[in-house]
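Hey, does this match?
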Amino acid sequence: MAGTAQLLTPAAPTLEQPKIRIENLRKTYQVRGGEVIALNDANLDIMPNEFISVVGPSGCGKTTLLNIIAGLEQATSGKVELDGKVVTGPGKERGVVFQQYALFPWKTVIKNIEFGLKLRGYSKAERREKAEQYLEYVNLKDFAHAYPKELSGGMKQRVAIARAYAVQPEVLLMDEPFGALDAQTRAQLQEDLLKTWQTEKKTCFFITHDVEEAVILGQRVVIMSARPGRIKEIIDVDIPYPRDQTTKMDPRFIEIKNEIWAKVYKEYLEVQR
């Protein structure tokens, strides 16, 4: 198991059509006193059913990139394609989970999960069946009729994940969904997410500040540079699934984690200059 992690070039040619193609993406913001470049010449191909983790220093454009893929923001130039079609706005094929749970406090857990299904035209019976199915997936079946205020942070995030999965998106976009949780809850949700991803086989784009989390989850880890954000390197995580918390003790895991950490820290130092 000796040797460094394999470096991959963005948008590597392949016979399989990418699920998501990010091409020459640039995003600028007008601020008082000038222009801020959030993203500059970002390029990446994400394959169907692939799990991509994204790391980089604060302010490097990770969330901006996710928002553009989600259709919540528009690029200044360049494009994002989904199945060969340019993304121009939100769509039912993409689900988003944010760090803040964004649950409706006046709705019960099961009603929160049913909400997106109702918008998509599912019947009342279909909504209830799917909501119950995904509540069982995230081990919250006994809390179906509880309100968000009665749940812990980890339980709220499980509801948010169940809500995103219930509408059956082809792509799941996750912006530091476990960032505010304690270590034990975070570890459990990592394992829950991996099990669900292996069952559902969605395409996942997962942003995190935690290098260890990026490696335990991702098939590839994208390292973004200090602002202006660009995709600096892509590292292949050549550790087989299924993975769990014991994987973090594997020498290969530690080797890859340390390599990525050194590269991310180098970008962090660039921000401090």
User: Anything to note?
Assistant: The two ends are 36 Å apart (CA to CA).
